[in-house]
Structure prediction request, 465 residues.
Amino acid sequence: KINSPLEAYKFLPATNCGECGEQTCMAFAAHLIDRSKDLTECTPILEEKFRKKYEELDALLAPEIREVVIGVGDNVANIGGDDVLYRHKLTFFNQTKFAYDVWDTMDEKDLIERVKYIQDFKKFYVGNFLTVDMVAVRSTSGDPEKFAAVVSKVVETTHLPIILCSFDPEVLKAGLEVSKDRNPLLYAANKDNWKEVADLALEYDVPVTLFAPNDLDLLKSMAKTFAEMGTEKLVLDPGTFPTGKQLRQTFNNFIKVRRAGIEGDREIAYPIMAVPFTAWMAHDDPVSASYWETVVASVFTIKYGDIMILHSTEPYAMLPELHIRDTIYTDPRKPVMVDPGMYEVGEPTADSPVLVTTNFALTYYTVESDISSNKIDCYLWAIDTEGIGVEAAVAGGQLTAAKIKKGIEESGFNLQTDTTHNTIILPGLAARLQGDVEDETGANVMIGPADSGRIPGWMEKNWPP
Ligand code: SF4
Prediction:
């Protein structure tokens, strides 16, 4: 396994030709290590004379946990591919994929409605839409024909990748026949059906889940057998027990499997599946079931569920699941930023206030939302603080009077001629910059509230100046 740019560099052509977009091979090697570039971007190494080096380096760069692809073309769900147990040691790649279920005893209208709802669900958060990823089709009838008909309808209705769920190989086969072009994930092989399901996975060349509830030895032995039979497109389900001591056991199982994989046990280094849906079987009323499903989903988003099958599509269940996933899979090496510059909120005129904030996305969108939801027309200046929030940027020198002046000049906006008031409003947490900003810009500087939620009240009292 390669851990440093120097080790990767030894395999590269060392011509510094620049075809990869980097000036030197060493710079490219550094990007290979943090996975911000792919080895195939070095076109010279793809030439025949470097083939051996390419193959060696490609193998050495492969992540500890195998990456498994479900779906085809632009509609794929990549799972696994991690190298670390703790996010701060590098980052987690391939965020947990959420599959919401449909079942083959649904009537057609409800089925289509639910699939469309899953596909179209989205929530705007910090500059991006949070969405869900997959549809899991469960056989509840046990009837292959019925299952095939429903899988067909799902394939027709959505481009999302799918999971085919049954322990009956005949049912899985019927589903595969109508969805084989979509590279679905099979769920699941267990101790009773593994031979038939392995044959299906090999025949149709699709990924497959191995299910061995609370039996890691069996799980590992199945994974080894499947690999020997010729497929490593495997997902491991050690069972998800949603309550009490058993939940703790499940949690321990997930950690054991992932730890072994990261520490080099290739026989078990595959993505892990959690099935928080089991919370539905443990609770009678739908609200408790949704609540516990969300709790279990959150636990295994943190450690180490790469893919999940879920049931509750209530926004109060889906939103926490999406938010916690977004938090865990934000790359700690890269602050979440918006482009610096001057933004118009509403329909500002020359009389409108000019507010300053930073380009840390969470700050920017919080301020923007507090202003726009209160229908305040204004100019909002996102100063380039390298994605750091106001208080830390003032303390660390990323938000200074000179930076504010530079930001204003670069935007082409002229406070003297484009406004009637020549005034800037600084965030309360940047109050100590007031004198310096006045000196640098020649503008009047007002100090707004420390919390953007108080901007509307502050405006009522203080604007116009
Ligand atoms: Fe080096 Fe390959 Fe990049 Fe050329 S394309 S600079 S050989 S890494």
